[in-house]
Amino acid sequence: HSILVAAGKNPGLIGTVYYLGRTKMKAHRTTPESLDIFKLFDRFRSDGAQAVVMEVSSHALSLGRVEGIKFSSAVFTNLGQDHLDFHGSIDEYRKSKLHLFSLLEEDGTAIFNTDDPTSEAIEALHLKKTITYGVKNRA
């Protein structure tokens, strides 16, 4: 979001704490329900937004809240132990996170952290456009 603002763009933001267009709205969950997402998109467009930055939770991916959305880019930071109560296992948690990359536009870009072991699973998807980053591993 900050990068787009610095580049002179007017992005909408959907995140854990708030949703931001011309008006800041308190968030009730990280990724809203599907209908609410599309209402926010409409509001952002009416406010002149040129892009939307959205945090997409593993819960939202598992529950289908973002189905039908095609992302121009997707960023994966890391996989921890924090949502195992919902997913039941680290493998199910990883599978839900990997689903985000299936929602990329055909020429979309996958951006991911090579320091996280899940990066191997992302690489195995053979996505067309990738950008990697890392501190310990080669990016």
Automatic annotation (TrEMBL):
One of its GO terms (molecular function) is acid-amino acid ligase activity. InterPro entries: Mur-like_cat_sf (IPR036565), Mur_ligase_cen (IPR013221). Transmembrane segments: none annotated. Pfam families: Mur_ligase_M. Residues 12-139 form the Mur ligase central domain. This is Mur ligase central domain-containing protein.
